[in-house]
């Protein structure tokens, strides 16, 4: 049996961050990168976020502030502005003199991934793209420009170099092939993925069970029956992971207890790159990123 010796826990304003379908967290072991994604950020997501990592040898933590700028509801205007129906694109900021002296063509480092999502769930398409100056991004769907919509949000996260497309309330008409094209004065690159939306069944009587995740709703009025978000490697939103995932990582014979591990093999966790403050517009996806060495031992 594999036993994990470290744990990550997220806090908001000093209280454990509760599970919700807008939150996704993941720890990538080899780059030691921990991320928290918040879909369709809202003013009540505004606050101070802390992640704490612990193992038998100690603990460490890092903190940042997330600020959400409210936007006026479209209902307050007498008409829909024509530019809302333009193609969905992300214009590049004005290049700096340094960018112009050391220009590099856009390059996709991590491509878009195929996604299958349940109807009415939020979805986030993301790719890692570098380039100098910062690229200009255009989104296509099934070979045609993707029209702007109140359900769609796109942005480029400078810190992680990720271009993001958030689709709220996924529908069957969202099914298709999505392409993001990155361009700057010295070149272009692109990435493609497919999105499949699974329609909801007409009822639940024919189901063998109702998944527990259906009841983990961040918007529960009294905050009951919701558990704090805790993270273990390789997991997005699930609170546990298959032990087989870690059999080759810092393996200690099962006959050895944690306290039997040689002293020189033990190391407390350490924050290598702290969280950075983030400010963005309401309804945009937020990404909080930190680099953390989880310490030794990791697991038996």
Large-scale geometry: globular
Low-pLDDT sequence parts = 74-85, 203-208, 215-221, 232-243, 245-256
Question: Helix- and strand-based class?
Answer: mainly beta
From the alpha carbons, calculate the radius of gyration and give it in angstroms: 21 Å
The helix-strand sequence is EEEEEEEHEEEEEEEEEEEEE
CATH topology of the largest domain: Immunoglobulin-like
Number of strands: 20
Could you describe the largest sheet, including whether it forms a barrel? Answer: 6 strands, mixed
CATH class (first level) name of the largest domain: Mainly Beta
Query: What is the CATH architecture descriptor of the largest domain?
Result: Sandwich
CATH superfamily of the largest domain: Immunoglobulins
**Count of separate DSSP helical elements:** 1
Query: What average pLDDT do the residues reach?
Result: 78
Question: Overview of this structure, please?
Answer:
By secondary structure, this protein is mostly beta strands. The chain has two domains: 7-70 and 228-293, Immunoglobulin-like; 86-198, Immunoglobulin-like (Sandwich), CATH 2.60.40.10. It contains one helix and 20 strands. It has one helix spanning 97-101, and strands at 7-12, 15-16, 23-28, 33-38, 47-55, 58-69, 89-90, 104-110, 115-118, 123-132, 136-141, 144-145, 152-157, 162-167, 176-184, 187-198, 230-231, 270-273, 278-281, 286-293. Strands 1, 2, 5, 6, 17 and 19 form a six-stranded mixed beta sheet that branches. Strands 7, 9, 11, 12, 15 and 16 form a six-stranded mixed beta sheet that branches. A four-stranded antiparallel beta sheet has the order 3-4-20-18, with no helix packed on it. Strand 15 (176-184) and strand 16 form a beta hairpin. The protein is globular. It starts with 6 loop residues before the first strand and ends in a 7-residue tail after the last strand.
């Amino acid at each position: 049996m594999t036993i994990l010796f470290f744990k990550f826990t997220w806090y908001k304003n000093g209280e454990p961050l509760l599970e919700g379908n807008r939150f996704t967290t993941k720890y990538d072991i080899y780059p030691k990168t921990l991320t928290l994604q918040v879909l369709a950020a809202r003013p009540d997501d505004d606050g101070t976020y802390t992640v704490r990592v612990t193992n038998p040898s100690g603990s460490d933590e890092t903190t940042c502030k997330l600020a959400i700028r409210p936007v006026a509801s479209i209902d307050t205007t007498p008409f829909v502005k024509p530019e809302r129906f333009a193609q969905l694109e992300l214009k590049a900021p004005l290049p700096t003199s340094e960018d112009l002296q050391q220009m590099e063509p856009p390059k996709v480092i991590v491509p878009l991934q195929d996604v299958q999502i349940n109807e009415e769930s939020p979805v986030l398409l993301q790719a890692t793209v570098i380039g100098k100056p910062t690229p200009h991004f255009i989104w296509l769907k099934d070979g045609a420009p993707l029209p702007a919509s109140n359900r769609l949000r796109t942005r480029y996260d400078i810190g992680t170099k990720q271009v993001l497309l958030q689709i709220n309330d996924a529908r069957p008409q969202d099914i298709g092939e999505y392409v993001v094209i990155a361009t700057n004065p010295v070149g272009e690159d692109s990435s493609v993925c497919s999105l499949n939306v699974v329609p909801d069944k007409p009822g639940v009587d024919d189901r063998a069970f109702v998944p527990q995740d259906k009841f983990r709703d961040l918007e529960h009025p009294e905050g009951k029956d919701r558990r704090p978000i805790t993270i273990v490697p390789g997991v997005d939103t699930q609170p546990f992971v298959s032990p087989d995932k870690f059999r080759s990582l810092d393996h200690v014979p099962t006959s050895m207890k944690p306290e039997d591990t040689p002293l020189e093999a033990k190391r407390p966790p350490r924050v290598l790159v702290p969280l950075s403050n983030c400010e963005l517009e309401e309804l945009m996806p937020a990404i909080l990123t930190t680099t953390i060495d989880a310490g030794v031992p990791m697991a038996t």
